[in-house]
Amino acid sequence: MKEMVPSPPAVVRNETAEIQALFQQYVVPSYGRFDLVLSHGSGSQVWDTGGRRYLDFGGGIAVCALGHASAAITETLIEQSRKLVHTSNFYYHGPQGRLAQALVNLIGPGKCFFCNSGVEANEGLFKLARKFGHDEGRFEIITTINSFHGRTLAAIAATGQEKVKKGFEPAVPGFRQVPYNDLAATRSAISPATAAILVEGIQGEGGVTPATPEYLLGLRQLCDEKKLLLLMDGVQCGHFRTGRFQSHQRILENVPGGEKFLPDGISMAKSLGGGFPMGAFWVRQPYADLLGAGSHGTTFGGSPLACAVALKILSVIQQEKLADNARETGAYIKAALEEMARQHPRVIQAVRGLGFMVGMTLAPDIPAFSGEGKTPAVRFTNLLHAAGLLAVPAGTNIIRVLPALNLRRSEADEGLKIIGGVVEKLSA
Ligand SMILES: Cc1ncc(COP(=O)(O)O)c(C=O)c1O
Questions:
Q1: Contact 234, 202 (CB under 8 A)
Q2: What is the pLDDT along the chain (428 residues), one digit of tens a residue?
Q3: Which residues lie below 8 Å from residue 269, measured CB to CB, with a gap of 6+?
Q4: Are 101 and 114 contacting, i.e. CB atoms less than 8 angstroms apart?
Q5: 127: nearest Cα among 210, 26, 195
Q6: C-alpha distance from residue 13 to each of 5, 20, 37, 224 (Å)
Q7: Which of 270, 357, 400 for a ligand 1 pocket mutation test, highest count of atoms within 8 Å of Cβ?
Q8: Collapsed DSSP state (helix, strand, coil) of residue 108
Q9: Is the CB of 76 under 6 A from ligand 1?
Q10: Nearest CA to ligand 1 atom 7
Protein backbone atom coordinates (compact mmCIF):
# COMPACT_ATOMS: atom_id res chain seq x y z
CA MET A 1 0.00 0.00 0.00
CA LYS A 2 1.36 3.39 -0.97
CA GLU A 3 2.19 5.63 2.01
CA MET A 4 -0.13 8.61 1.90
CA VAL A 5 1.79 10.83 4.26
CA PRO A 6 0.91 14.46 3.70
CA SER A 7 3.92 16.67 3.30
CA PRO A 8 3.82 19.94 5.20
CA PRO A 9 2.44 22.70 2.98
CA ALA A 10 5.07 24.52 0.94
CA VAL A 11 4.12 27.83 2.45
CA VAL A 12 3.09 27.45 6.07
CA ARG A 13 0.60 30.19 6.76
CA ASN A 14 0.33 31.15 10.37
CA GLU A 15 -3.42 31.02 10.86
CA THR A 16 -3.17 30.59 14.61
CA ALA A 17 -4.77 33.85 15.74
CA GLU A 18 -7.44 33.74 13.05
CA ILE A 19 -8.58 30.22 13.99
CA GLN A 20 -8.56 30.96 17.72
CA ALA A 21 -10.70 34.03 17.07
CA LEU A 22 -13.23 31.88 15.20
CA PHE A 23 -13.46 29.55 18.19
CA GLN A 24 -13.88 32.46 20.58
CA GLN A 25 -16.70 33.88 18.54
CA TYR A 26 -18.52 30.81 17.28
CA VAL A 27 -17.74 27.71 19.38
CA VAL A 28 -19.45 26.98 22.71
CA PRO A 29 -16.68 27.38 25.28
CA SER A 30 -17.30 24.06 27.06
CA TYR A 31 -13.70 22.88 26.71
CA GLY A 32 -10.58 24.27 28.34
CA ARG A 33 -8.26 24.23 25.34
CA PHE A 34 -4.48 24.43 25.14
CA ASP A 35 -2.93 27.23 23.18
CA LEU A 36 -2.19 25.06 20.14
CA VAL A 37 -3.77 25.14 16.69
CA LEU A 38 -3.04 21.91 14.88
CA SER A 39 -2.87 21.60 11.17
CA HIS A 40 -1.82 18.10 10.04
CA GLY A 41 -0.15 14.94 11.20
CA SER A 42 1.57 11.74 10.20
CA GLY A 43 1.81 8.71 12.48
CA SER A 44 2.73 9.98 15.92
CA GLN A 45 3.75 13.41 14.71
CA VAL A 46 1.58 16.48 14.38
CA TRP A 47 2.28 20.00 13.19
CA ASP A 48 0.72 23.24 14.28
CA THR A 49 -0.33 26.03 11.97
CA GLY A 50 3.00 27.74 12.57
CA GLY A 51 4.82 24.69 11.14
CA ARG A 52 6.11 23.45 14.49
CA ARG A 53 6.33 19.66 14.94
CA TYR A 54 5.14 17.80 18.05
CA LEU A 55 5.48 14.17 19.00
CA ASP A 56 2.06 12.87 20.04
CA PHE A 57 1.95 10.82 23.24
CA GLY A 58 -1.76 11.60 23.70
CA GLY A 59 -3.20 9.97 20.58
CA GLY A 60 -6.27 12.20 20.67
CA ILE A 61 -7.05 10.76 24.15
CA ALA A 62 -6.55 7.10 23.24
CA VAL A 63 -8.35 7.41 19.90
CA CYS A 64 -5.81 7.48 17.08
CA ALA A 65 -5.02 3.74 17.15
CA LEU A 66 -2.97 3.92 13.95
CA GLY A 67 -1.73 7.48 14.46
CA HIS A 68 -2.53 10.48 12.28
CA ALA A 69 -3.24 10.33 8.54
CA SER A 70 -3.00 6.55 8.47
CA ALA A 71 -2.78 5.36 4.85
CA ALA A 72 -4.77 2.23 5.75
CA ILE A 73 -7.65 4.28 7.15
CA THR A 74 -7.58 6.81 4.31
CA GLU A 75 -7.68 4.11 1.65
CA THR A 76 -10.48 2.23 3.42
CA LEU A 77 -12.52 5.43 3.67
CA ILE A 78 -12.05 6.06 -0.04
CA GLU A 79 -12.76 2.48 -1.08
CA GLN A 80 -15.85 2.00 1.12
CA SER A 81 -17.27 5.44 0.40
CA ARG A 82 -17.22 4.60 -3.31
CA LYS A 83 -19.49 1.63 -2.51
CA LEU A 84 -21.81 2.45 0.41
CA VAL A 85 -21.49 5.08 3.13
CA HIS A 86 -24.79 4.75 5.01
CA THR A 87 -27.82 2.53 4.75
CA SER A 88 -29.78 3.03 8.04
CA ASN A 89 -30.36 0.03 10.26
CA PHE A 90 -33.44 -1.01 8.30
CA TYR A 91 -31.09 -3.10 6.19
CA TYR A 92 -28.31 -5.65 6.50
CA HIS A 93 -24.82 -5.00 5.14
CA GLY A 94 -21.54 -6.88 5.18
CA PRO A 95 -19.19 -4.63 7.22
CA GLN A 96 -21.49 -4.51 10.33
CA GLY A 97 -21.99 -8.28 10.37
CA ARG A 98 -18.27 -8.95 9.89
CA LEU A 99 -17.24 -6.42 12.55
CA ALA A 100 -19.69 -7.89 15.09
CA GLN A 101 -18.23 -11.33 14.39
CA ALA A 102 -14.67 -10.03 14.83
CA LEU A 103 -15.49 -8.36 18.18
CA VAL A 104 -17.30 -11.45 19.47
CA ASN A 105 -14.29 -13.58 18.48
CA LEU A 106 -12.03 -11.21 20.42
CA ILE A 107 -14.22 -11.13 23.56
CA GLY A 108 -16.45 -14.17 23.90
CA PRO A 109 -19.86 -15.60 22.97
CA GLY A 110 -22.39 -12.81 22.60
CA LYS A 111 -23.62 -10.09 20.25
CA CYS A 112 -22.78 -6.44 19.48
CA PHE A 113 -24.68 -3.20 19.04
CA PHE A 114 -23.10 -0.29 17.17
CA CYS A 115 -23.33 3.40 17.95
CA ASN A 116 -21.23 6.55 17.63
CA SER A 117 -19.39 7.34 20.85
CA GLY A 118 -18.32 6.05 24.22
CA VAL A 119 -21.13 7.67 26.11
CA GLU A 120 -23.67 6.21 23.72
CA ALA A 121 -22.17 2.76 24.22
CA ASN A 122 -22.52 3.22 27.99
CA GLU A 123 -26.07 4.48 27.60
CA GLY A 124 -26.82 1.22 25.80
CA LEU A 125 -25.41 -0.72 28.76
CA PHE A 126 -27.57 1.32 31.16
CA LYS A 127 -30.63 0.43 29.12
CA LEU A 128 -29.56 -3.21 29.02
CA ALA A 129 -29.32 -3.20 32.84
CA ARG A 130 -32.75 -1.56 33.20
CA LYS A 131 -34.32 -4.06 30.81
CA PHE A 132 -32.62 -6.91 32.68
CA GLY A 133 -33.98 -5.80 36.07
CA HIS A 134 -37.26 -4.34 34.87
CA ASP A 135 -39.72 -7.09 35.71
CA GLU A 136 -38.36 -7.35 39.26
CA GLY A 137 -38.37 -3.59 39.77
CA ARG A 138 -34.56 -3.46 39.79
CA PHE A 139 -32.90 -0.51 38.05
CA GLU A 140 -29.93 0.68 40.11
CA ILE A 141 -26.39 0.53 38.75
CA ILE A 142 -23.42 0.66 41.10
CA THR A 143 -20.41 2.50 39.70
CA THR A 144 -17.17 3.71 41.27
CA ILE A 145 -15.67 6.87 42.73
CA ASN A 146 -13.29 8.54 40.27
CA SER A 147 -14.85 6.72 37.33
CA PHE A 148 -15.69 8.47 34.07
CA HIS A 149 -18.44 7.25 31.76
CA GLY A 150 -19.24 10.24 29.54
CA ARG A 151 -21.25 13.46 29.46
CA THR A 152 -24.94 12.68 28.89
CA LEU A 153 -27.27 13.11 31.86
CA ALA A 154 -27.26 9.39 32.67
CA ALA A 155 -23.51 9.11 32.21
CA ILE A 156 -22.73 12.03 34.52
CA ALA A 157 -24.97 10.37 37.11
CA ALA A 158 -22.91 7.18 36.61
CA THR A 159 -19.58 9.03 36.73
CA GLY A 160 -17.89 9.20 40.12
CA GLN A 161 -16.58 12.77 39.83
CA GLU A 162 -18.46 15.75 41.28
CA LYS A 163 -17.03 18.19 38.74
CA VAL A 164 -19.00 16.67 35.84
CA LYS A 165 -22.30 16.68 37.77
CA LYS A 166 -22.17 20.21 39.17
CA GLY A 167 -24.80 22.53 37.73
CA PHE A 168 -26.80 19.78 36.02
CA GLU A 169 -28.88 18.61 38.97
CA PRO A 170 -31.26 16.91 39.56
CA ALA A 171 -29.28 13.77 38.76
CA VAL A 172 -30.80 10.92 36.78
CA PRO A 173 -31.83 8.45 39.49
CA GLY A 174 -30.48 4.92 39.81
CA PHE A 175 -26.72 5.34 40.15
CA ARG A 176 -24.56 5.17 43.23
CA GLN A 177 -20.78 5.24 43.59
CA VAL A 178 -18.53 3.16 45.81
CA PRO A 179 -14.72 3.15 46.12
CA TYR A 180 -12.87 1.41 43.25
CA ASN A 181 -11.08 -1.87 43.91
CA ASP A 182 -13.18 -2.25 47.08
CA LEU A 183 -15.27 -5.42 47.07
CA ALA A 184 -16.62 -5.00 50.59
CA ALA A 185 -17.96 -1.51 49.80
CA THR A 186 -19.53 -2.82 46.59
CA ARG A 187 -21.23 -5.65 48.43
CA SER A 188 -22.68 -3.34 51.06
CA ALA A 189 -24.02 -0.93 48.41
CA ILE A 190 -26.19 -3.62 46.81
CA SER A 191 -29.89 -3.05 47.50
CA PRO A 192 -33.02 -4.94 46.40
CA ALA A 193 -33.19 -2.41 43.53
CA THR A 194 -29.68 -3.13 42.18
CA ALA A 195 -29.49 -4.53 38.66
CA ALA A 196 -25.84 -4.11 37.64
CA ILE A 197 -22.31 -3.06 38.50
CA LEU A 198 -20.29 -0.99 36.01
CA VAL A 199 -16.52 -0.51 36.26
CA GLU A 200 -13.62 0.52 34.04
CA GLY A 201 -10.88 -2.11 33.77
CA ILE A 202 -8.45 0.76 34.22
CA GLN A 203 -9.85 4.07 35.39
CA GLY A 204 -8.69 6.58 32.79
CA GLU A 205 -9.90 10.10 33.50
CA GLY A 206 -9.70 9.24 37.19
CA GLY A 207 -5.92 8.90 36.88
CA VAL A 208 -4.91 5.54 35.35
CA THR A 209 -5.78 3.12 38.14
CA PRO A 210 -5.98 -0.54 37.09
CA ALA A 211 -8.45 -2.93 38.66
CA THR A 212 -6.78 -5.69 40.66
CA PRO A 213 -7.33 -9.31 39.57
CA GLU A 214 -9.00 -10.07 42.92
CA TYR A 215 -11.43 -7.20 42.40
CA LEU A 216 -12.50 -8.37 38.94
CA LEU A 217 -12.86 -12.01 40.00
CA GLY A 218 -14.68 -10.92 43.17
CA LEU A 219 -17.08 -8.71 41.20
CA ARG A 220 -17.90 -11.64 38.94
CA GLN A 221 -18.65 -13.81 41.95
CA LEU A 222 -20.72 -11.10 43.60
CA CYS A 223 -22.75 -10.50 40.43
CA ASP A 224 -23.41 -14.24 40.04
CA GLU A 225 -24.45 -14.52 43.68
CA LYS A 226 -26.79 -11.51 43.59
CA LYS A 227 -28.03 -11.97 40.00
CA LEU A 228 -26.53 -8.70 38.76
CA LEU A 229 -25.02 -7.82 35.40
CA LEU A 230 -21.29 -7.14 35.46
CA LEU A 231 -20.64 -4.35 32.98
CA MET A 232 -17.24 -3.00 31.96
CA ASP A 233 -16.46 0.34 30.36
CA GLY A 234 -13.69 -0.44 27.88
CA VAL A 235 -13.93 2.87 26.05
CA GLN A 236 -10.47 4.12 27.00
CA CYS A 237 -8.63 1.04 28.26
CA GLY A 238 -9.85 -1.36 25.55
CA HIS A 239 -8.83 -2.10 21.97
CA PHE A 240 -5.37 -3.60 22.61
CA ARG A 241 -4.11 -0.59 24.54
CA THR A 242 -3.03 -2.87 27.40
CA GLY A 243 -1.57 -5.48 25.05
CA ARG A 244 -4.78 -7.53 24.98
CA PHE A 245 -8.08 -6.63 23.31
CA GLN A 246 -9.85 -5.86 26.59
CA SER A 247 -8.14 -4.82 29.80
CA HIS A 248 -9.64 -7.68 31.85
CA GLN A 249 -7.88 -10.13 29.53
CA ARG A 250 -4.56 -8.49 30.38
CA ILE A 251 -5.22 -7.99 34.09
CA LEU A 252 -6.29 -11.62 34.52
CA GLU A 253 -3.49 -13.12 32.42
CA ASN A 254 -1.92 -16.06 34.29
CA VAL A 255 -4.27 -15.53 37.23
CA PRO A 256 -5.95 -18.77 38.40
CA GLY A 257 -9.58 -18.67 37.22
CA GLY A 258 -8.82 -15.65 35.02
CA GLU A 259 -9.18 -17.45 31.70
CA LYS A 260 -12.85 -18.19 32.46
CA PHE A 261 -13.73 -14.59 33.41
CA LEU A 262 -16.20 -12.73 31.23
CA PRO A 263 -18.24 -9.67 32.10
CA ASP A 264 -21.84 -9.49 30.84
CA GLY A 265 -21.41 -6.32 28.80
CA ILE A 266 -18.53 -4.17 27.53
CA SER A 267 -18.69 -0.67 26.05
CA MET A 268 -16.18 0.35 23.38
CA ALA A 269 -15.38 3.47 21.35
CA LYS A 270 -12.26 5.66 20.96
CA SER A 271 -9.64 3.42 19.20
CA LEU A 272 -12.39 1.28 17.65
CA GLY A 273 -12.70 3.81 14.81
CA GLY A 274 -9.19 5.27 15.11
CA GLY A 275 -10.63 8.80 14.84
CA PHE A 276 -13.69 7.93 12.80
CA PRO A 277 -16.46 8.41 15.39
CA MET A 278 -17.87 5.08 16.44
CA GLY A 279 -18.87 3.12 19.51
CA ALA A 280 -20.19 -0.33 20.28
CA PHE A 281 -21.22 -2.58 23.09
CA TRP A 282 -20.90 -6.31 23.41
CA VAL A 283 -23.41 -8.36 25.42
CA ARG A 284 -22.69 -11.85 26.71
CA GLN A 285 -24.72 -14.66 25.20
CA PRO A 286 -27.49 -15.22 27.74
CA TYR A 287 -28.41 -11.53 27.63
CA ALA A 288 -27.63 -10.88 23.96
CA ASP A 289 -31.29 -10.75 22.89
CA LEU A 290 -32.59 -8.67 25.81
CA LEU A 291 -32.70 -5.55 23.66
CA GLY A 292 -35.21 -6.82 21.12
CA ALA A 293 -36.55 -5.18 17.96
CA GLY A 294 -37.66 -1.60 18.59
CA SER A 295 -36.06 -1.32 22.04
CA HIS A 296 -32.91 0.59 21.10
CA GLY A 297 -31.40 2.29 18.07
CA THR A 298 -29.38 5.13 16.56
CA THR A 299 -29.40 6.46 13.01
CA PHE A 300 -25.70 6.41 12.24
CA GLY A 301 -24.67 3.38 14.32
CA GLY A 302 -22.70 0.69 12.53
CA SER A 303 -22.68 2.31 9.09
CA PRO A 304 -20.81 0.50 6.32
CA LEU A 305 -18.19 3.27 6.37
CA ALA A 306 -17.55 3.16 10.14
CA CYS A 307 -17.49 -0.65 10.25
CA ALA A 308 -15.14 -0.92 7.26
CA VAL A 309 -12.71 1.40 9.04
CA ALA A 310 -12.96 -0.56 12.30
CA LEU A 311 -12.37 -3.84 10.46
CA LYS A 312 -9.32 -2.39 8.72
CA ILE A 313 -7.88 -1.17 12.03
CA LEU A 314 -8.29 -4.64 13.53
CA SER A 315 -6.51 -6.22 10.59
CA VAL A 316 -3.61 -3.72 10.72
CA ILE A 317 -3.26 -4.29 14.48
CA GLN A 318 -3.03 -8.02 13.83
CA GLN A 319 -0.71 -7.81 10.80
CA GLU A 320 1.68 -5.36 12.41
CA LYS A 321 1.56 -7.03 15.84
CA LEU A 322 0.56 -3.76 17.46
CA ALA A 323 -0.81 -5.44 20.60
CA ASP A 324 2.72 -6.67 21.29
CA ASN A 325 4.05 -3.21 20.55
CA ALA A 326 1.61 -1.66 23.05
CA ARG A 327 2.63 -4.20 25.67
CA GLU A 328 6.38 -3.98 25.12
CA THR A 329 6.92 -0.34 24.22
CA GLY A 330 4.39 0.57 26.92
CA ALA A 331 6.37 -1.39 29.50
CA TYR A 332 9.54 0.33 28.25
CA ILE A 333 7.96 3.78 28.72
CA LYS A 334 6.62 2.86 32.14
CA ALA A 335 10.00 1.52 33.30
CA ALA A 336 11.75 4.69 32.09
CA LEU A 337 9.21 6.90 33.90
CA GLU A 338 9.62 4.81 37.07
CA GLU A 339 13.37 5.37 36.87
CA MET A 340 12.71 9.11 36.46
CA ALA A 341 10.44 8.97 39.53
CA ARG A 342 13.24 7.30 41.53
CA GLN A 343 15.67 10.01 40.50
CA HIS A 344 13.26 12.91 40.91
CA PRO A 345 10.78 11.97 43.65
CA ARG A 346 10.07 15.64 44.24
CA VAL A 347 8.58 15.88 40.75
CA ILE A 348 7.13 12.42 40.00
CA GLN A 349 5.41 10.66 42.86
CA ALA A 350 4.15 7.49 41.18
CA VAL A 351 3.76 5.77 37.83
CA ARG A 352 0.88 3.41 37.05
CA GLY A 353 -0.70 1.63 34.12
CA LEU A 354 -0.45 -1.15 31.60
CA GLY A 355 0.79 -1.10 28.00
CA PHE A 356 0.06 2.18 26.25
CA MET A 357 -2.03 3.49 29.12
CA VAL A 358 0.46 4.98 31.54
CA GLY A 359 -0.17 7.62 34.17
CA MET A 360 2.41 9.68 35.99
CA THR A 361 1.33 11.30 39.27
CA LEU A 362 3.09 14.60 39.89
CA ALA A 363 4.42 15.18 43.38
CA PRO A 364 2.60 17.78 45.48
CA ASP A 365 4.36 21.09 46.08
CA ILE A 366 6.53 21.29 42.97
CA PRO A 367 7.98 24.79 43.64
CA ALA A 368 7.49 26.01 40.04
CA PHE A 369 3.78 25.21 40.33
CA SER A 370 3.15 27.02 43.60
CA GLY A 371 0.69 29.89 43.83
CA GLU A 372 -2.57 30.53 42.06
CA GLY A 373 -3.17 29.35 38.56
CA LYS A 374 -3.82 26.29 36.45
CA THR A 375 -3.54 22.79 37.93
CA PRO A 376 -0.09 21.16 38.10
CA ALA A 377 -1.22 18.68 35.41
CA VAL A 378 -2.08 21.51 33.01
CA ARG A 379 1.10 23.43 33.80
CA PHE A 380 3.23 20.32 33.27
CA THR A 381 1.43 19.63 29.98
CA ASN A 382 2.14 23.21 28.86
CA LEU A 383 5.84 22.65 29.55
CA LEU A 384 5.73 19.44 27.49
CA HIS A 385 4.09 21.34 24.64
CA ALA A 386 6.78 24.00 24.78
CA ALA A 387 9.35 21.19 24.51
CA GLY A 388 7.52 19.53 21.58
CA LEU A 389 5.44 16.74 23.12
CA LEU A 390 1.67 16.26 23.42
CA ALA A 391 0.36 14.33 26.44
CA VAL A 392 -2.97 14.27 28.28
CA PRO A 393 -3.64 15.62 31.77
CA ALA A 394 -6.01 13.77 34.12
CA GLY A 395 -7.42 15.16 37.36
CA THR A 396 -5.32 17.88 38.92
CA ASN A 397 -1.93 16.17 39.03
CA ILE A 398 -1.69 13.26 36.61
CA ILE A 399 -0.18 13.11 33.13
CA ARG A 400 -1.35 10.34 30.81
CA VAL A 401 0.58 8.67 28.01
CA LEU A 402 -1.95 7.18 25.54
CA PRO A 403 -0.12 7.03 22.23
CA ALA A 404 -1.00 5.43 18.92
CA LEU A 405 -0.58 1.65 19.02
CA ASN A 406 2.08 1.92 16.31
CA LEU A 407 4.32 4.33 18.24
CA ARG A 408 7.91 3.40 17.42
CA ARG A 409 10.63 2.67 19.97
CA SER A 410 12.65 5.63 18.64
CA GLU A 411 9.61 7.86 19.16
CA ALA A 412 9.19 6.51 22.69
CA ASP A 413 12.82 7.46 23.33
CA GLU A 414 12.28 10.93 21.90
CA GLY A 415 9.20 11.51 24.08
CA LEU A 416 10.93 10.19 27.19
CA LYS A 417 13.84 12.54 26.58
CA ILE A 418 11.43 15.47 26.40
CA ILE A 419 9.65 14.42 29.61
CA GLY A 420 13.05 13.89 31.27
CA GLY A 421 14.14 17.39 30.31
CA VAL A 422 11.00 18.94 31.80
CA VAL A 423 11.31 16.85 34.98
CA GLU A 424 14.96 17.83 35.41
CA LYS A 425 14.18 21.50 35.01
CA LEU A 426 11.40 21.24 37.61
CA SER A 427 13.61 19.46 40.12
CA ALA A 428 16.48 21.91 39.77
C1 LIG B 1 -13.85 5.33 30.27
C2 LIG B 1 -14.63 6.25 29.40
N3 LIG B 1 -15.93 6.02 29.20
C4 LIG B 1 -16.68 6.81 28.42
C5 LIG B 1 -16.14 7.91 27.82
C6 LIG B 1 -17.01 8.79 26.96
O7 LIG B 1 -16.68 8.59 25.62
P8 LIG B 1 -17.15 9.67 24.53
O9 LIG B 1 -16.43 10.94 24.85
O10 LIG B 1 -16.76 9.05 23.22
O11 LIG B 1 -18.61 9.82 24.67
C12 LIG B 1 -14.79 8.21 27.99
C13 LIG B 1 -14.19 9.40 27.38
O14 LIG B 1 -13.14 9.85 27.71
C15 LIG B 1 -14.01 7.35 28.81
O16 LIG B 1 -12.72 7.61 29.04
A1: no
A2: 444 555 555 444 568 999 999 999 999 999 999 999 999 999 999 999 999 999 999 999 999 999 999 999 999 999 999 999 999 999 999 999 999 999 999 999 999 999 999 999 999 999 999 999 999 999 999 999 999 999 999 999 999 999 999 999 999 999 999 999 999 999 999 999 999 999 999 999 999 999 999 999 999 999 999 999 999 999 999 999 999 999 999 999 999 999 999 999 999 999 999 999 999 999 999 999 999 999 999 999 999 999 999 999 999 999 999 999 999 999 999 999 999 999 999 999 999 999 999 999 999 999 999 988 899 999 999 999 999 999 999 999 999 999 999 999 999 999 999 999 999 999 98
A3: 117, 118, 120, 121, 235, 278, 279, 280
A4: no
A5: 195
A6: 20, 14, 12, 60
A7: 270
A8: coil
A9: no
A10: 118
Report the C-alpha gap between 341 and 330 in whole angstroms.
16
Could you tell me which residues are beta bridge partners of residue 233?
Answer: 200, 267
Distinct helix (H) and strand (E) counts, the chain: 14, 17
C-alpha–C-alpha distance, residues 259 and 252, integer Å: 7
| Phi then psi dihedrals of residue 266, to 5 deg | -135, 130
Single-letter amino acid, residue 73: I
Q: State whether the beta carbon of 207 lies less than 6 angstroms from ligand 1.
A: no
